[in-house]
Design brief:
The structure holds 2 protein chains of 2 kinds.
Chain A: H1 3-12, H2 44-66, H3 75-104, H4 115-120, H5 140-161, H6 167-195, H7 199-212, H8 224-227, H9 240-253, H10 279-294
Helix pairs in contact in A: 2-3, 3-6, 5-6, 5-7, 5-9
Chain B: H1 3-14, H2 26-29, E1 32-38, E2 41-46, H3 56-69, E3 75-79, H4 92-100, E4 103-104, E5 142-146, E6 154-159, E7 165-169
Parallel strand pairs in B: 2-3, 4-7
Antiparallel strand pairs in B: 1-2, 5-6, 6-7
Classes of the chains: A mainly alpha, B alpha/beta.
Amino acid sequence: MTEDEFAAYQSLSEQTEDHRWAFGTGFTDPLEGIDTSVPEDVNARALATYCLMLGDDALVYSHRLQQWMTRMPELEEETALANIALDLLGQARMLLARAGRAEGALLADGNGPDEDELAYFRDEHEFRNVRLVEALDADFAELAGRLLVFSAWRLALFSRLAESADPVLAAIAAKGVKELAYHRDYAAQWVIRLGDGTPLSHGKMQAALGTIWPLVDELFEADPVTAALPGVAADPAGLRGEVGAVLGAVFDAATLDRPGAAPMARVAGKSGRDGVHTEAFGYLLAELQSVARAHPGATW
Amino acid sequence: MSGADLDAAREIAGAVPDPELPVVTVADLGILRDVAAEDGRLVVTITPTYSGCPALPEIAHDLRHRLSRAGFAEVIVRTALAPAWSSDWITAEGRRKLRAAGIAPPQAAPPQAAPTHQGPVPLTLTARREPVPCPRCGSRDTTQTAAFSGTACKALFRCEACREPFEYVKEI
């Protein structure tokens, strides 16, 4: 092994100032060296919350996708899903870091929480993700359907955010667009294969859409955080047409009926964006946070 | 810092191999965006290929290590997120090296990958139209077996002529 190769391996186990083993070693701030000052006319509090919303969607869904590992029908599909989960985790890290920096802009010492504090040490009601990403998929059809809806929606959202008045959010979104386009096409092709497949696969795909559908409406609901960020955030209602057209095209090609299930009710007027979640979420979060909470600050 | 120093720094930084694809360098891949002097310090700017790319901290470490060994006292590695990396930035030399290693280089990135793109990203419901030539035998009779591979930036293919599987660096 040459000296240069050795240095590369050594860096994998290098102990840095902020190393904590629950989070891996040698992790660096995903926004290191990037100007994260909040533009003057942007509401920093709302920007922090908005980035948490988008970061939590990706973090929670990435965790659910990771739970499919070792359970996928073929190795090729497993690597595909692992990579999709990794892309989303990368997006989550940058968005949570962005949230922390925006929050820091409001504090006297300028130091907001870092990505790990936000991911591992917030409680259920502090998470802002939509409820669509919380459930454990009952089968592969449900995975394909949920991934299709999620990535079609997030792609439409990120396409708009690439023009955001916050340059950091715009850069994260522009990068995400390229990734999400692959995720959406991957999911769409599976929905078509299953829907336009055998009577059994068609039936399972149709049933899966019926299960997911009550959680779709929430993706397009107005919320006060988005409303406080004109030019920075994208209006959820404005995504309905584009996402509907994409899903319609896929359902037609898949010979699937558009599901008609009514939206899941809000709880006392609140839903995922307000920190009110489904039962499945508590279990997911307990697993996601268990190591970091059992061994706070531990290193390897 | 003299112009000759900067040229030397560029050469050293550009020669750092990608940890996931060691046959190509960060310059070949277009990950290395800039090498500049700032108040006597050397500032190297890199960009991630994909949001979750785990190779970036390793690349940054390798850059600092090699440049400080070459005598640059203070080396700062910065990340740039915009403009987002495109596979179009892989150089001709990089493409040649990938092919030689049995990895098909990317085709031209789709229009929606451009930062100036407006409007919805078109949905792709069928397999790609342009055939990806086999990097071993050159046959265009190839089939995609998976949309992703060992890393997010690659897809898996099989050549129907020589029957060898190969990886393809996706266009983004």
